[in-house]
Amino acid sequence: MNKRGALSIETIIIIILALLVLVIIATAFSGGMKELWGRIMGIGATATEVELSDAQASCAKLCGLPAYDTTSFFVKGVGAKTCREIKPCYYGQKIK
Fold it and tell me: How far is the C-alpha of 15 from the C-alpha of 93, rounded, in Å?
């Protein structure tokens, strides 16, 4: 009972699978499959290690923004640290 212009179930399934494949390919090229798998599995420790100076610079840019309180980095030789632990920020301070 196919009406003209109506999509069959097979066509809808193929479209959904094609979109899923495109999303996986885009994610693989943008952030890597390890990070994607970590997000899927809910593992928060999939971040790559960064140097302390890079983490401090990033935290300094976030000073005064809401993201400052929620951002953390996995610092080489130190472990996971929040911006508050890496670079104290005093709201209203001017960043040079």
Answer: 52
